[in-house]
Amino acid sequence: MRVLNLIWKFSTGGIGKCFLTYATLSSADNNICVTSACIDPQNCNYDRNNLKQINARIISIKNKKDFSWIRKTKALIDEIKPDIIFCHGFNGPIIVQIIKWFYNIKIPMICSYHGLYHAPTPQKRFIAPIFNRTQIWLYKHYANRIILVENFSKKYLLKNGISIEKLFVCHNGIPDITTTINNITLPQEEISIGLASRLDSVKGIEYLLQAIPLVKAKTKNPFKVYILGDGPLEKKLIQISQKLNINDSIVFLGYQNNIPEWLATWDIFVLPSLFEYHSIALLEAMRAGKAIIATTVGGNEESVTNHVEALTIPSKDSIALSEALIKLIENPQLRKKIGENARKRFLIEFTENTMKKNLIKALTL
């Protein structure tokens, strides 16, 4: 079976990481041949090294107003003659269906669904319902199958009229890699707390910042919070940190491409998101055997169980977050137990090999 694995504009978030895994499906089944391609606006600034590593075909365009991608993608389809087109994210089904309409192509379309579109800035909030309604309409009328990364989304799509026969849940999975070289050294006398995330409102980072003064007031143990990532909320989060007078406890590190190394140095990993689907960041923390605090949103509770592989708390609750932090800061035995449990569950359920096997079932049904 020949598969065109197609994405519009690569990102280092969950969709991008899944796209990279999908590119290697042939390693799990020799009968599947995957050609990965990225429609790549050249005016966008992002790391393209991952695309090179999987030998992705780059469909280069000047910007999002350059519609030459229609002709160029059609040429690629004619070249590889795929049996299915596997597309991703909010733009995926839109671009595939445009090409199919334009050239009267009958190739089946399979889509991966990673949750609702949440506007990264207030200026873009008006487009969120348009994106989400369009996506549902395309799924309902044109998608042959939708791959979901967790059951939370399945309930949502069923509620919105998507046929259950189209839906297939395949949890995310990541390679079981361990860091052998680590050039990061943190003060041993401090408990290190980490977060790796895009800095936008949906990630709930402001609630983590608001929890820090409460933690400082109730524990004498020294700690520091390391925030990795960039995004539209970066300046605002720094301002909140300054206003709360917690600059001595917070380090903003910007975008980093060595997340496993940072995870290896942290004692606690925090995921304070307001929305998640099947978080890759959470799986990375589980793989690293970290003590985890995560909110009870979306698919998080499909990955971890409260007081087993993590401490789970409601979203938007700085008090609950501060209490969970204090509990882990002051109890090294609990940190060790939760981290070990998280690592064990990752190995059983969320490795890349497990994901690939489940995904192949979905593609070949």
From TrEMBL:
Lineage: superkingdom: Bacteria
Record keywords: Transferase
Pfam short name (any one): Glycos_transf_1
Gene3D superfamilies, A to Z: Glycogen Phosphorylase B
GO molecular function, one term: glycosyltransferase activity
All copies of domain Glycosyl transferase family, residue ranges: 180-345
Protein name (record): Glycosyltransferase family 4 protein
Native organism: Phocaeicola dorei
